[in-house]
Amino acid sequence: LFETMKASNRALLPWVAALSGLYDPNTPTLTTAFHTPIARNNFKSPSNVDVQNSNSRYQRQTAAIELSANSQPEQSPLEEEWDVVVVGSGVGGLSAASLCARYGLKTICVEAHDAPGGVAHSFERPSSKPKPGDAENNPDDATLRPFIFDSGPSLLSGMSSKGTNPLRQVLDAIGTADQIEWVTYDGWMVHDTAFPMEDSARSSFRLTTGSDGIWEKAIEKKAGSESKREFEKFKKQMMSEGGLSESSALIPPLSLRGDLSAALTMRSYIGKFLKIGLQGTLLTGPFTECMDLYGLNDEFNRKWFDYLAFALSGLDAAHTQAAPVAYTMIDLHKENAVLDYPMGGMDSLIQALVSGLEMDRGNGVEPGELRLKSRVEKFCLEEVKNKAKCTGVVLEDGTVLKAKKGV
User: Fold this and answer.
1) Is-contact 277 312, C-beta < 8 A?
2) Within 10 Å of residue 187's Cβ, how many Cβ atoms?
3) Rounded CA separation 59/217 (Å)
4) In terms of Cα–Cα distance, which of 112, 93, 118, 109 is closest to 38?
5) Is 115 helix (H, G, I), strand (E, B) or coil?
6) Helix, strand or coil for residue 247?
7) What percent of the chain has pLDDT over 90?
8) pTM of the model
C-alpha cells in the first residue's frame, strides 16, 4: 500500500497515516521504512501452536513508519562462508547435508520451520491432562507420556538391516544407523468404504508381506480367482531373475553421479548396467506400461497398484515412475519380507540424520549446522560462461550465506 502511494501522490500519505494513528503534523518529515510484510519466522509447529491465534499460518508484521528526520543508516548484512548450503531439512535435504558433512565439506542446512523433517516431522499431544507435580512424582507413569504423531510418511521397508534401500545406505554412510530402534511387522489392514462394514469379506482385507501366498489368498477372497491368477502371473514376471524388480535394485543409487567421476563409482556395476539393457526405458517410464506389457488388466489389481504408487509418490500408477514400484514389490513379496517402523516415530529417523550432520568427526572439518527459523528470501546467481551459477542464498533477516561448492 505504501509503495503504491509513494509512487503516486504523496499528499495522500499523511491522511492514511493519520487514519492509522501514526501521523504527527508537528513532525517535520515523514519517512517510510518498508519491512518484510510477513514475519515468517513466527510459524509454529503443531506441538506448540496457539489455537486462539491460529486464524493465519503466519503472523502479520505491521509496516513501520518512522517519524524522524534523522533515520539511522542500515547495517551491512552479515556474511558467512560455507562449502555447501542446503535449503530445507526434509529427508532429502538432511540426507544431502549429512553426506556432505560426512565427506569433509563445511555444510549448513537452513529450514524455515522451527522443527526439522519437512513433511516427515512429528508432533506431540498429551495423553491426559496432567496435574501439578505429576511428571516429577510419577516419571514412569505411562498415562503421562505424550502421544507422538507423524505428520506425513510412515510406511518404510528395508530399513531395519543393511541392504539396497537408499535411505538406509545414507544412515550407514554417516554412521548413525544404530541410533534407531526398529520395530518390524508383516502387513496392514485396508478398508474399502465402497462396501458396508457388515460385509467383512469385501469391506476389508489385509496386505500380508512375504512369499507364502497369504496375500494372494486375500486377493481371491476380495476380488475373485481371476484377479488372484493375474496377480500371481504378474508378480512372477516382475520378480523373475533378470526381471524389472531385480533390475530396479541392481545399481545402488549412491553410485550414480552427474559428473565424470561416475566412471569411478559405476565401474564395479558395468556388468549389471549392461544386464538392465532396454529394460531401463521401462523402469524410467510410468508403472502402467509394465502392467500393460505383462497383461495385468483386472480392475482390482490395477487399483491396488494405483494405491501402492500413491503411497510412494502421491500420484497414481500412470504418473509414478516404474522403478520405485517395481523395487517395492521385492520389499513386500520376497521371502520373509517385513515392514519397518522407528521407535519414537519418524522423528527418530530425522534426528539420526541431524546427528550425522552435526557430528564432530575429528578430521579438522567443522561439524555441519542445522539452522531453524531461517527462511531463504532469495538465491544469489552469477553469470559464468553464459550460464547462471548459484553462489549462495540470502536469509529473511538479511544474512548472506556464501557457498564455495554449491547450493
Assistant:
1) no
2) 17
3) 54
4) 112
5) coil
6) helix
7) 51
8) 0.72
